[in-house]
Write a structure and sequence with these properties.
The protein is an all-alpha fold. The chain has six helices and no strands. Helix 1 crosses helix 3, helix 2 packs across helix 4 and helix 5 packs across helix 6. The N and C termini lie far apart (66 Å).
């Protein structure tokens, strides 16, 4: 029997959707699902995965409100959503810290 093409696992499908899209657009699209995490944790997880795959800047987090939305999910009653949100917040903290340090280093050198 011939083998049909298997579709990639859901996580890889999410990565493909997020890759190349502007971070602010991905963030805005994720907000409704993040805010409904208690009623639809699977959708929230999918959007958390998308957000983890895009390169964000401090301005993206602030202008879209997604940083605050994900931070709130750290207390979600669905453990997998809470853990994913916590990891994403930690990743974003590191990104913002590097961004700030880079600006300070550039200002000191310039």
């Amino acid at each position: 029997a011939g083998r049909g093409r298997m579709s990639p696992p859901p996580f890889l499908q999410v990565v493909r959707l997020a890759r190349g899209a502007p971070a602010a657009d991905v963030a805005r699209a994720a907000l409704p699902a993040l805010e409904a995490a208690d009623t639809d944790p699977a959708a929230a997880l999918e959007h958390l995965r998308k957000l983890a795959c895009v390169s964000v800047r401090r301005a993206d987090l602030a202008s879209t409100g997604v940083g605050a939305a994900v931070r709130r999910l750290k207390r979600c009653r669905h453990v997998d959503v809470a853990v994913s949100a916590h990891r994403l917040v930690e990743k974003w903290k590191a990104v913002v810290t590097r961004e700030i340090q880079g600006r300070k280093a550039g200002a000191a050198a310039g």
